[in-house]
Hints:
By secondary structure, the chain is α+β, with helices and mostly antiparallel strands. The protein has helices spanning 7-17, 22-29, 33-40, 48-57; strands at 94-98, 109-115, 130-137, 140-144, 147-151, 156-160, 165-169, 175-182. Helix 2 (22-29) crosses helix 3 (33-40) and helix 2 (22-29) crosses helix 4 (48-57).
Amino acid sequence: MINEKDVPKKIRQMRLDRHMTQQDLADAAGLTKGYISRLENAESAPPVGTLIALAQAMDVQFNDFFQGEPEEAIVTITRKDERPAVSRDPQGPCLFEHLAMGFPKRAFESYYVEVSPQNETHLLNKHKGQEFVFVLRGIMEFTVDKKKFTLYPGDAMHFNCSYPHSGRCISEEKSEVLCIIWDGKHTA
């Protein structure tokens, strides 16, 4: 498994393996060439939404940024204390922990997400596919296509990720969320 700090190098290598320029990748992912350049020289992985857009632009699975060639598997188990963090800033408002990184050729990505209380709006994401969120603890406010939705523990939401979307904790204590993202393309 690749360390999160190696992800920017892996992105660059994958781009070069596909004979794509930074501008090609930026255009395909809906980003700027300058952002791709900064991303490839960064010290850690970009936000999950950006990784999904990059994976779609290069026609790879999200998992490919963190692993070499996948092997076949029937079952993998991710223990609570072994979940790899894929957040770019563990001290920031969100911490994403991958729940099934070890399972190759996944049809979807699954995460345990901790969201710290904050006043500012979270950055908007936009990528192909669908997302399912289930609030385990706390109160979350999600925005999808400029519409706001408040979810409480036990509430779930399924939405089309091609619309701008974001989420933020609006409770006094951190929120915990189960998040499942399907890129709209890969199947088991």
